[in-house]
Write a structure and sequence with these properties.
Length: about 280
């Protein structure tokens, strides 16, 4: 090989190495809430099309799993459908000397799923809590047919589980509540079981019907819609969060800034959730 060809070969190798280095630097990992997987994957897909040098990897596992990954350093961003716990903040502080950074990124109406063949269409917040606590066990106790209620819920590592327990059940779940690994599994179970009930993010309500939720006996039943989430009339609503160890920089900051921009927020309704404003 002559000197000129050798120099060209070396130059190409350097360019290829630099290109590979850029790709590695631009990788961002996102892990956590199963509720947020559909939304985060949509954000990642559109963002990477606009920024070919970026690599955004999204996985689920539950809010608790994502926050644990943030604490042990195996993810850049933890998705969570519940606020971070004080015990998790303490672990972050002990390991990184930081309180973490909380970024609300969307709103969600937590749906209560019913089988389409179930004649019951609305329940009070108290009735829903009593059903999942095992205090109401037959549909005839809430105006439905004489049939036992089958319960489906999330595993304890789920942020949806935690939020539903704290804000709706307000005690321990019934031992008869069958826990399933993911909201899609709950929807599929309710779809097949006429006298069942489940809960999860509104985006997953395919093939089942949303239960209209009443604040109390005197209130009208409210369905989770963009309007009722925005004006806070739907009783079971929440923020969805991203958590980081510290203030975002580099590609993670660019990705989060884009999510919070009108373009990123504009994609939220496409997958069944609701923008911040």
């Amino acid at each position: 090989m002559n000197t000129t060809k050798f120099k060209i070969a070396v130059l190409l190798a350097v360019v290829m190495t630099i290109g590979f280095s850029f790709t590695t630097v631009n990788k961002v990992t996102v892990k956590g809430s199963d509720t947020m997987v559909i939304l985060s994957q949509k954000w990642a897909e559109v963002y990477m099309k606009k920024n070919p040098g970026a690599s955004i990897q999204v996985t689920g596992g539950g809010s608790g799993v994502g926050l644990a990954a943030l604490i042990n350093g195996s993810t850049d961003i933890a998705n969570s459908s519940r606020p971070i716990k004080a015990s998790e903040i303490e672990k972050l502080k002990a390991r990184y000397n930081t309180m973490g950074v909380e970024i609300p990124c969307a709103k969600d109406g937590l749906s209560v799923y019913l089988n389409k063949a179930n004649p019951v269409a609305s329940l009070t917040l108290k009735q829903i809590g009593q059903i999942f606590a095992g205090k109401i066990t037959n549909w005839n106790e809430v105006g439905g047919p004489d049939a036992p209620i089958k319960l489906y819920g999330r595993e304890s590592s789920s942020g949806t589980f935690g939020f539903f327990k704290d804000n709706v059940v307000k005690t321990d779940f019934s031992p008869s509540c069958q826990t399933l690994p993911g909201t899609a599994a709950i929807v599929n179970a309710v779809k097949k079981d006429k006298y069942s009930i489940g809960y999860g993010g509104a985006a997953y309500a395919e093939g089942v019907k949303d239960c209209a939720v009443k604040k109390d006996d005197k209130s009208a039943g409210i369905l989770p819609t963009a309007a009722t989430i925005k004006n806070h009339t739907y009783p079971i609503s929440r923020y969805l969060y991203m958590y980081l160890k510290s203030k975002p920089t580099g590609e993670a900051k660019a990705f989060i800034d884009w999510i919070l921009s009108p373009e990123g927020q504009g994609l939220i309704a496409d997958v069944g959730y609701y923008p911040l404003k």
